[in-house]
Structure to design on (108 residues):
């Protein structure tokens, strides 16, 4: 009985397929680890000031929650509060305020 040796092209094909499968598994594992690390960091730093690490204190300003740092005076907005403020304001109001400031600064 004579066995037929596979061609080198066939060997190369399967070697590439195996390498691609291993690369995908490695990528998925790295992504899972990064997601786990991100979650661990989020849990560790939740409710802390980004500047000094002190515990943040929530304060209601109108209908928006602002997190205030008693140590350094920083103020932080959750995404929902930012979106509420941003949707309520006119898009050009910030630019208008800056331009008005320049106009008043240039008057003698």
């Amino acid at each position: 009985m004579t066995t037929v040796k596979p061609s080198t092209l066939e060997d190369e094909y399967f070697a590439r397929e195996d390498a691609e499968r291993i690369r995908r598994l490695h990528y998925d594992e790295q992504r899972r680890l990064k997601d786990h690390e991100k979650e661990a960091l989020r849990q560790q730093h939740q409710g802390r000031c980004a500047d000094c690490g002190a515990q943040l204190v929530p304060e209601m300003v109108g209908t928006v929650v602002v997190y205030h740092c008693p140590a350094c005076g920083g103020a932080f907005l959750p995404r929902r509060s930012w979106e509420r403020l941003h949707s309520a304001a006119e898009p050009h109001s910030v630019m208008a305020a800056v331009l008005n400031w320049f106009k008043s600064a240039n008057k003698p």
